[in-house]
Amino acid sequence: MLALGAVLYHFGKEYRLVHDRLTAVGVVTDYGTPISRAPRFVRFVVSRFAADVPVIKYSFVAFDQKTYTGQTGWRVAGLYKGAKIPILYKPGRPAVNHPAGSFIFYTFAA
User: Fold this and answer.
1) Domain assignment of residue 108, yes or no
2) 110 inside domain
3) pLDDT higher than threshold 60 for residue 110
């Protein structure tokens, strides 16, 4: 039941962002694994229980000419620092944003 609640919550977040959005071109500012900066022993222990999933950080300039940032770990394979990516964000709150390629329930044409 908890898993269903988490899925519905995430779907709702995506739905609201997709149906009320502006787009911008973002730039990947960091690409790596969160655990890569941890001590060697911690990396060893964590690697036995979980995959080392890459995460990107990105920034973009919204319509108000301010720079906003975000991060995601979903569908980031093949990206690199400096890569340009499309970002969707809420017009009234650009801090609520997500890369177009990282949605779970929606896909967008290139």
Assistant:
1) no
2) no
3) no
